[in-house]
Amino acid sequence: TTRWKIQDSERIDGQAIEEAAAVLKRGGTVAFPTETVYGLGADATNEEAVSGIFQAKGRPQDNPLIAHIADREQLYELVERPFPYVDMLLDAFTPGPLTFVLPSNGTCAANVTAGLPTLGVRIPDHPVAQQLLRACRLPIAAPSANLSGKPSPTTADHVWADLHGRISGLVDGGATGVGLESTVLDCTQEIPIILRPGGITREQLESVIGNVMVDPALAGKDDRPKAPGMKYRHYSPEVPLWLVEGNVQALQDLIDQEKQKGQRIGLLAGTRTAKQLEADAKIELGGDIAEIAANLYDGLRTFKEGDIDLIICEAFAQEGLGQAVMNRLKKAASDYLQLG
Ligand code: TXA
Ligand code: MG
Questions:
Q1: How confident is the model at residue 11 (pLDDT cuts 50, 70, 90)?
Q2: Is the model's pLDDT at 223 over the cut of 70?
Q3: 337 C-alpha vs ligand 1 centroid, how far in Å?
Q4: Following DSSP, what letter does each residue of 235-297 receive, concatenated?
Q5: Ligand 1 contacts CB of residue 227 (under 6 A)
Q6: Residue 305: which of 234, 239, 213, 236 has the closest Cα?
Q7: What is the ipTM of this complex?
Q8: Closest Cα to atom 32 of ligand 1
Q9: Mean of the pLDDT values across residues 57-74?
Q10: Which end of the chain has the smaller Cβ count within 10 Å, N or C?
Q11: Does pTM top 0.95 for this prediction?
Q12: For a substitution probing ligand 1, which of 181, 193, 233 has the most ligand atoms within 8 Å of its CB?
């Protein structure tokens, strides 16, 4: 695995980008930063290249990939002409953490869409991703650059830990910004449906186009989610994680009770809550939900088997970006406790 280090995102080393683009054009797999998480890219029009992604990640074959493009013109080369509200969303939120699911015109390889008639497409808002996409002039299929099941990578070191030796290259552009994946929006109906909550909130979408629906499978566990990837357990830390709703005293009582059983407890919480609690190890995720989102995956990866037996994580309000944070935490959790 070749590792290119981008020292300064404002003045990107053109040669590193050219080399990485050449690897992609030859059918290799290259991880790169986006504003959400690192992606593992391959030429979306090359079926063999795309199958390299599935192999490297150990990803189930029925889970489609998002095609990344540099600009809007490229979008119309990949999909059928969309509903007018898609243009309004493109104006408002792209480049940015919003993925549009649209009827595919068949330009991307069949394994990108896992055989579905629709294609997920997004225009990432990161200077390294943008330059790489422009340099190779291809749609780049890219899932998050982690081993399947693990938390998504928000630093190049996370990618290296999971995939080094399994991929052709890694463009190291430092830590990502949002820290959670893009919102996946099904735009094949008159009213769009959120299939995965993410960096653009439902409230933001509704402020531009009015009513937006949410896949009912996100609220319950029984329905089959419309985004194939949402049915899998995900984001798993090395040790069990309990997601806990309750006041500070209830959280401390729970920690003390588990410590008495001999468990070493790692606490994951917002800064204010964390400062008021005692545990064997603590990670303060931040003072507001945007900071908490940005630090979440690194927090999940920091607690190691051997140091900690159980992670106790504070539950957050499910509004705005809190929707996406709680969606990921529920998947990472082995238990969800609601204390009085
Ligand atoms: O922020 C992101 O979206 C990151 C960065 C790298 O761009 N990518 C990412 O990709 O999170 P991935 O593969 O980890 O998640 C893609 C999600 C999966 O849940 C997948 O099932 C869903 O999007 N998806 C992709 N194409 C779809 C389609 N045609 N229909 C329904 N769901 C789709
Ligand atoms: Mg992923």
A1: confident
A2: no
A3: 29
A4: ---SS-EEEEES-HHHHHHHHHHHHHTT--EEEEE-HHHHHT---SEEEE--SSHHHHHHHHH
A5: yes
A6: 239
A7: 0.99
A8: 227
A9: 96
A10: C
A11: yes
A12: 181
